[in-house]
Amino acid sequence: MQRSTGSPSLGSQQQQHDVERIASSPVGESPVRCLICLDDLQDECEARPCGHDLFHFICLVTWLEHRAACPLCNGDINEVRYEVSGNDKQGKIYKVPESNKGSDASSRLPLRYEDNAVQKRRRIYRDNLYSLHIGSNEQQLAESAYKELSPQLLATDARLISRARAWLRRELRVFQFLNTARDFSQDRRPSNMEFLADLIIAMLKTVDFQDSSGHAEGIIQEYLGRRNTQLFLHELKAWLRSPYESLSAWDLNVQYREANTLPRASNEPNPEAMQCPTVILKYSEPAGARKPCSTQAWRLYVFKDSEIVDTINLSERSVWLFGRDERVVDVVTGHPSCSGQHAVLQFLYLPAKICRKQGGEKREWDRKEDGHGGSVGLYLIDQDSTHGTRLNGEAVESGRYVEIKDKDLIQFGGSRREYVVILPPA
Which domain of life is it from (predicted)? Predict the structure, then answer.
């Protein structure tokens, strides 16, 4: 991967300024560190039966995929206890799959797997492939449900931050211009990748990566380039939203539009692969996906026989997938004429020059300028549904982004339900 020529030098004063500006680190005694990744210990767990507990949960689970033995004492591990809180002394239990036990103890195996995984991830960036969207709704099973993210959640959930660090440690290896002679585990002096990982973790806790301003994208693209950054943030969101406990399980299940990058079944049973049903997904958010600004409180009112049966705060997410398949959609449309993945409502950022030309006029009344020369609009996309999607009574062309305005009425298939979009005055 090649870096943009205008990138600032890593390790510069600008980097230090970015870190200090986004988050401050407490000064005190040396923190306890995870014995696998050597980062500060936050999302700790306990290996059983030996009882050693100086590991992040995600680090230990990843280790156990290659060798079902304690990294500290080399004793066999049958299960891992995690998420132990003051009110819940028992916590949760992760059972080590039988297929992991008795595996080759070669210390090179995890590295060999990770090297192969990094090569595959490098191809994702080379071909600019965006992982396909899986929605979240209240009807999904808790163990397989995807979750929505916010800085508030990430600031208080140590396990999410641990998962983010595990992903960043591997993903940043994709960008060869960040690599140095030493590896993460070989030297505790800050490396280029470590610095950028710390910067991103600090931002995760304070900044919504999809807010209308594009603030996070603007900072990170100085180091990775704009094209890489847009895909990088999309994939980070996809991983953190997913229910998978290890990167290998996510690798097995994540889907991309090209057939040769769709997940393939493993030769060995993988319990985590069963967490999400095998559904061929249809939609991926585009590079310009963002949430609307805070003054735009987009609402969707669902009517049936002139009565409001549901209200959806559209501004909470950048994308909403509608359809009958409750396993993968954000909004379940139960009518039998609706397709499994029927249509999408997508918030999308457009540069100002496109906004001015669209429709031959500049329509500022239905878009809110974000202060960076562009605006975020709402768009409807039919996903090649069997019985179509209608906007204000007219059929919508499949696969085409159609702009949605205040008081527009949407209908899916033959359903009598009417979905009315409302944008209250700021």
Answer: Eukaryota
